[in-house]
Design brief:
2 copies of one chain form a homodimer.
Chain A: E1 15-18, H1 27-37, E2 44-47, E3 53-54, E4 57-58, E5 72-75, H2 79-92, E6 96-99, H3 109-124, E7 128-130, E8 137-139, E9 144-145, E10 155-162, H4 165-178, E11 182-187, H5 196-204, E12 211-216, H6 222-235, E13 238-242, H7 247-255, H8 264-274, E14 277-279, H9 282-294, E15 302-307, H10 310-322, E16 326-327, H11 332-339, E17 352-353, H12 360-372, E18 378-383, H13 391-404, E19 412-416, H14 423-431, H15 443-463, H16 474-491, H17 501-510, E20 518-521, H18 524-534, E21 538-544, E22 556-560, H19 563-580, E23 586-593, E24 599-608, E25 612-619, H20 624-627, E26 630-634, H21 639-647, H22 650-654, H23 666-682, E27 686-696, E28 703-705, E29 708-712
Helix pairs in contact in A: 2-3, 5-6, 6-8, 9-15, 10-15, 12-13, 13-14, 16-17, 18-19, 21-23
């Protein structure tokens, strides 16, 4: 499907409404009413075998009877009748169909079957299908409104894509009340045909949309989404409100639209990678959308605040700093210029407080000066309510400066505070493409989102080329995986998919990841010569089938320095193990070279059902789950992305040395992260890898994977 | 001052306006206009020597000429004239004065002097003074509006207290636009007379206010605030938006209203202790205020969500869970009841989704059932826009159930989504005291704030009695502090106030805090017998003046097991020290018993200028600042508060044992926290204490303060 084909939903030459009704409370009536009332200019064909006329329009008994031109049909009939109507549309040669009717995938297995039939019919006739279980589409420019929802937003530059019809309806109502304009609104429903990824890309290229806001519960295909979102975000900012972040939220999705809710960590990584900005509330979604649609991106994180009231400025400054931005220092030139134009008691330091007696002219001069200051990347203009000039005149001034600041290209956000006396000022600002906020706190996350997009765009030439990390010996890796799968098939899943420690060490070695020397001692008599060969101190680790986290069962002893200690510890470990583990499953005890390094990390891989291998790095040790100091990214990774992951964790930060501890071998950690990602990409049979701890040695001495686990999918093959 | 006396500002028998003006753009005109326009029913006396009549009112040449009754004067004259007018008010016997005029403390030293004069005059005549540099007061019930700001909110149950006139003006404008009612609004200005603490307490007892919302930049007196806020919050919920949370924010305060901005950590501890709820945005402030004013508190954290649309419910559920609350499981009885009354495709699990075809009757039945369910502590009712019933009818239903749920006393929050079509529904809900939110996300933090207040109230009988923690030997403690101060006075501050390690150990011993045995070895020859007496392994620590963080200069060596190792390490430490530290300052090296425990914590005290000793506990070691895993509380502490502090840190959590590590001596940590707080309370000369690491031994074996620092204020005395 080409994205151009989806334009049938926005600029059809004629629209049929199958299930059109004369009764005003029926949805099939509302759709016809909206097409008429919101002035769709092409022909409208109500279809209903039991009516002659609806709202003054001629009614056709079936879609087969509808004359040309007709590109789009909206189906609003009971679920059991949808398939035959869809088929009739196909025979009639209609290329776009919106199925509003509910009663499909969202109601369970029975509905799932019905939906599969729709999908099949649509494919058979090469039709584009939106829905089922949706509320339709709105195009603010054509204009075209195929929904039954009362009200139509004014035309604008923001598109809204929704996987919930209810949220789409609420946004339509909110848009009418707030006066924010929309280029298009699309309710996607169950996505039996057109997916969020296809629609995202089509809208991104439509020529009228300058930002896409989306309410998402899940993606239909992870790799499609990654491609579509990246391509779209390159041109058009995309802001997403991802619902179902917690456990119960995810359950609600499963029982609701049936969308497969992927793990939120994977979604966050996918959004970060594709340059999609993730809002946390509906208000934030549209705060960001307005700013991104209307204002240029900042070139740095330094913000100037211009205000007529200190209290209001402090709220803005708190929000700006909490969002990770900072205040511009301002140059001496700027301060001198300002000082000559404001009251003596005014503050010419940032925040610049021109006091309550200043009016639009002073604002104009100061705003211009701040935009011209090289230490300023963005300006927030605040007006607390005052008595001696109309807020609308400040709105005109800010709007004029914003549109005329040629060559400066710095974003301006307005905070004309209040509500009752400021609606006309807000209208003026929004007409001049300056977002206004009723309270100063909201500028913080908005500017941060703009700055995040700028950084993503700037990093692109590097980000787009993930490094290939060659294995030391890929053939050996492949053989090891084959051997692991073979064992699994024979053993019938007793290991729950975990490879043996020996196989794991071989696999890591094949990818140039060093492990400490180690040997299996079935009895204490075997252990002593092993320890003497590798030299004390050594560590002892229980070798038992089915035990993944050995410290949970007291199966690890570290720093054994003498043969006497070795003997005692061996026995006690063995005895401890017998309490918890069947004797058959205990294979002995590993004797391992005791590694001491500068830091203990955890690195790992899990395979997300939607987005593929998810790479993790963070603070290692036994308390990983308590500490939760980890970062995730999707594979493949660039070197820079791996570095960035490390920087996001406290332990990663500390590798550079802190308070007397020498710097650790950070480059070796980066290599290991990249190699792990490579293993996961090379072998899709691997579902999980974990190295914990990965001991990081001094600079130049590398890392050692002290304890590692690899899990295979038993049914996978090479 | 009694709080009853402050009622002069809200129910005066007559109001004089000094500086009343005929010119409409003057503030002195606006005040007279507002008194008239917003229907103050007592006599209004404009005072102006150069006018006869203003807005139809007789004008008096001076305050001395104003007849009885007159309780309140509003002064709106240039700063230089304020003092003499205030004096005239005193002579006239007026008891309440609001000084609107600016040009005082907020403009610097010159203004500070002028403000001191005002303070003195007010005290001389026993007058209550609000301001200067404020916008006055509004009483929604009297009614009385002494501000010059256009617009008056409708009467209600929320009071708003503001240290910024601009924020107060913005709230007045927002209140008019949103229809939220206010009992009173007070702009406090520079607080030369009436402080935020006094006003808080007065409003809390006024009989009409059910919740107090406040914009605060700082408190005028920490201990007054602690008392006033606790007394007030016992009866009336208090919600605060504290501005100046970050660095630059605090600077903006300093250059603005001159309020002393205390450290934000201390404010957070003060709010937590006094039951004051801290909002993060203006919107949150009033979201919480409405819910606290109108709805009962939840008795637990389990929330039921009733919705006609799945997508909207997911947004609510995400917010509820992210705020630390959870979804009610619902009883089987409830589910059975619901199942019989909703569509087959509806979900009777929480969130209960009755689907788009359900109307107000179904909502009424389901809402009643959920309120009656024992697993439900609060209900969120969501209505996404739909076509077949008017939102206002749902508002009536929810309002009716809310007011009639006798004996159930569970909070209900409404989310009638949208804006354009829902304003009448919102009006109805607010009249019936059910807060409505345009989007579902806002219920999360609102319910969490209500639950936080409930927990604070429930904990009160315990919380209000901090434990006295007797010293083992207070007299010894006192002597040690005296000795420390004496040394400081002699040495002239070379130690920057730090006590010697020997003094610190004595002080801790006096308060029953164990330290490892330790001895100072000037040379290696002294070190060996010391180590042999205490037994290997030992630790070595540089003893040098002026070195606070020894690991920064490589001045610590741990785990020395033999005399050979001791000799080598001693020399290398000594050599290392010579590189950084003047030979005169190196006193030798401490030999210390090597303590190995289950966990390393940090515990400490800093003295906040406003709120006194602030106690800290958290993850110890060399990386404290990177890890930032610490909790703060104000002293004195109850045992429960100390436990709660520990629970808020990851390390505190881990003391109970995790993944194979044995449980550590948590009670001993609590004792140490309480003892440290006691030391700080006993000796106000101590400005800082830090124990890092505090090694926590196995259960029953106590703790050891391995490395400790105490700083004294040189000018303090016992």
């Amino acid at each position: 499907m080409t994205t151009a084909e989806l334009s049938v939903f926005f600029r059809p030459r004629g629209v049929a409404v199958i299930g059109a009704s004369r009764e005003p409370q029926k949805l099939g009536h509302g759709v016809v009413r909206n097409l008429l009332e919101y002035r769709y200019s092409g022909p409208i064909y109500p279809v209903n075998p039991r009516a002659d006329e609806i709202l003054g329009l001629k009614v056709f008994p079936s879609i087969a009877d509808v004359p040309d031109p007709v590109d789009l049909a909206v189906i609003v009939v009971p679920a059991r009748l949808v398939a035959s109507e869809l088929d009739a549309c196909g025979q009639r040669g209609i290329k776009g169909v919106i199925v509003v009717s509910a009663g499909f995938r969202e109601i369970g297995p029975e509905g799932e079957e019905k939906e599969a039939v729709l999908k099949q019919i649509a494919e058979q006739y090469n039709m584009h299908l939106i829905g089922p279980n949706c509320i339709g589409t709105i195009d603010g420019h054509t204009p075209l409104n195929t929904t039954f929802v009362v009200g139509m937003p004014r035309p604008g530059e923001i598109a809204f894509l929704s996987q919930s019809g209810a949220v789409a309806a609420a946004v339509i109502d909110w848009a009418r009340g707030s006066g924010v304009g929309f280029s298009r609104i699309v309710s996607l429903g169950n996505q039996a045909g057109v997916t969020e990824s296809q629609m995202l890309e089509a809208i991104g290229q439509d020529g009228v949309t300058r930002v896409i806001a989306a309410y998402m519960e899940g993606v239909s295909d992870g790799s499609e989404f990654l491609k579509a979102a990246t391509r779209t975000a390159l041109q058009t900012p995309v802001v997403v409100l991802k619902a179902g972040r917690g456990q119960s939220g995810a359950r609600a999705i499963a029982s609701h639209t049936g969308a497969l809710a992927g793990d939120h960590v994977a979604y966050e990584a996918a959004f970060r990678r594709t340059g999609v900005l993730q809002a946390h509330t509906t208000e934030e979604l549209f705060d960001w959308a307005r700013a991104l649609a209307w204002q240029p991106l900042p070139h740095g994180r330094r913000v100037a605040v211009l205000t007529n009231a200190g209290g209001a400025a402090i709220l803005a400054v708190d929000a700006i700093e909490e969002a990770g931005l900072e205040l511009s220092p301002l140059t001496e030139d700027t301060k001198t210029f300002l000082r000559q134009r404001v009251f003596a008691a005014a503050s010419v330091n940032n925040p610049v407080d021109i006091l309550a007696g200043s009016g639009p002219a002073t604002y104009a001069l100061c705003l211009d000066a701040l935009l011209g200051d090289e230490t300023v990347d963005a300006v927030v203009v605040i007006q607390a309510p005052q008595d001696w000039f109309a807020p609308i005149s400040l709105a005109e001034v800010v709007g004029e400066v914003s549109t005329s600041q040629l060559g400066r290209q710095k974003p301006i956000l307005a905070v004309i505070m209040g509500l009752a006396s400021t609606s006309d000022a807000t209208q003026v600002l929004h007409r001049r493409r300056v977002p206004n906020f009723a309270f100063p706190e909201r500028v913080g996350s908005t500017l941060a989102a703009m700055w995040q997009r700028k950084q993503w765009l700037d990093a692109l030439p590097i980000e787009s080329q993930p490094v290939e990390t060659p294995a030391c010996d890929r053939e050996m890796g492949k053989m090891t995986i084959e051997a692991g799968l073979e064992v699994l098939r024979q053993r019938d899943g007793k290991e729950r998919g975990w490879m043996s420690p020996e196989q794991v060490d071989t696999l890591l070695a094949a990818y140039c990841i060093q492990t400490p020397s180690s040997g299996l001692a079935p009895s204490v008599e075997h252990a002593i010569p092993l320890a003497e060969t590798m030299g004390y101190p050594v560590a002892l680790k229980l070798a038992a089938e089915g035990v993944v986290h050995k410290t949970d069962v007291g199966g690890v002893a570290l720093n054994i320095t003498t043969s006497g200690q070795l003997k005692r510890t061996f026995k006690s470990l063995r005895k401890q193990a017998s309490r918890y583990i069947a004797e058959d499953d205990i294979k002995g005890i590993y004797v391992q070279d005791m590694i001491r390094g500068e830091a203990e990390l955890i690195v790992g891989i899990v395979r997300d059902p939607q987005f593929g291998p998810l790479v993790m790095v963070g603070t290692g040790g036994t308390q990983v789950e308590m500490k939760r100091d980890v970062a995730f990214e999707l594979a493949p990774l660039t070197r820079k992305q791996a570095e960035n992951m490390l920087d996001r964790t406290r332990s990663g930060h500390l590798l550079a040395g802190f308070r007397g501890s020498p710097p650790a071998d950070r480059p070796a950690v980066i290599d290991t992260i990249l190699q792990l990602a490579q293993i996961a990409l090379d072998f899709p049979q691997i579902t999980e890898i974990e190295i914990n701890p990965l001991i990081v040695m001094k600079e130049g001495e590398g890392v050692r994977a002290v304890d590692s686990r690899v899990r295979l999918d038993k049914n996978g093959s090479l």
